[in-house]
Amino acid sequence: MRSLAATEVLKLWEAGRHQRPAHRALTVLGMGYPELSPDRLAMLEVGARDARLFAMREKTFGDALDVFVECPHCGRELQLTLSTEELLVEAVDAGGSVGAQQIEIADYSICFRLPNSGDLAAVTDVDDVEDARRMLATRCLLSTTHNGRPIPADGLPDPVVREVEQRIEALDPQADVVIDLHCPDCEHRWDAVFDIASFFWAELQSCAQRLLREVHVLAKAYGWSEPEILSLTPARRRRYLSMVC
User: Fold this and answer.
1) Strand spans (E) along the chain
2) What confidence tens digit (pLDDT) does each residue in 162-192 have?
3) pLDDT tier for residue 147 given thresholds of 50, 70 and 90
4) pLDDT per position as a tens digit, 56-67
5) 3-class DSSP assignment, residue 162
């Protein structure tokens, strides 16, 4: 795994800008891990997928992540710098799989797996958070029985489904990274979910826009082609830009 080249950033931006988030994350991973097939990437459990995205992001933009959030109480914009190490769960295995899990809850016996990108894509349009959580958990059920007799997944009572959700969260903590935030103005404290897929994409999008501007300015000034400009090192591009602007 290596850092993304300028040409690859632009290819990702062009390919992913109209995709839904779950598919976009796979497009990004496909560029960073060409040795893995699209089907293999799609089957990665969400935590393993995100661990790979963290690795790609660190190779491309470094270890520091500048996060901007707004205090929900007073509206102040806060900036904090986090590191990849702070956001990675140490036990996560970016290449392995937890596999099928069997649990017993009261008179119910349930076999389930962890969610993957296909499951996330399936609940994208579900507006209600609780409905989306239940649908996600239900998709991951491999078999369900009550008193030894098979029952449909949608026949499970809500408390049993919530227990399955909790087991999934415990088994795949990298899929749900939460950061503790504190506003120095109003002293409000709250938790916020950190989504590496959307964070990394926002950075790639910003980088692509900057690269396009650089190509435009240098092509206009020197008559160079886009491949010629993008083949320059970032330091050389900045130096030429400083002489033009």
Assistant:
1) 64-70, 77-83, 101-105, 108-112, 141-146, 149-150, 177-182, 189-194
2) 999 999 999 999 999 999 999 999 999 999 9
3) very high
4) 999 999 999 999
5) helix
Using the 8-state DSSP alphabet, how is residue 106 labeled?
T
For the chain, how far is it from start to end, CA to CA, in angstroms? 35
Report whether 58 contacts 84 (CB < 8 A).
yes
**Cα–Cα distance measured from residue 2 to residue 145, given in angstroms and rounded to the nearest whole number:** 46
DSSP 29: H
Instruction: Tell me what percent of the residues of the chain surpass a pLDDT of 70.
Output: 97
CA–CA distance, 29 with 52 (Å, rounded to integer): 7
The one-character DSSP state at 89 is: -
Residue 109, number of CB atoms within 10 A of its CB? 16
pLDDT at 96 over 60: no
C-alpha 19/C-alpha 25 separation (Å) is 9
Instruction: Report the predicted TM-score, pTM, of the whole model to 2 decimal places.
Output: 0.91
Cβ–Cβ < 8 Å for 169, 101? no
3-state helix, strand, coil in the chain (%, to 5): 50, 20, 30
- Among residues 172, 104, 98, 96, which one has the least CA distance to residue 143? 104
Residues with Cβ within 8 Å of residue 89, at least 6 apart in sequence: 47, 51, 173, 174, 177
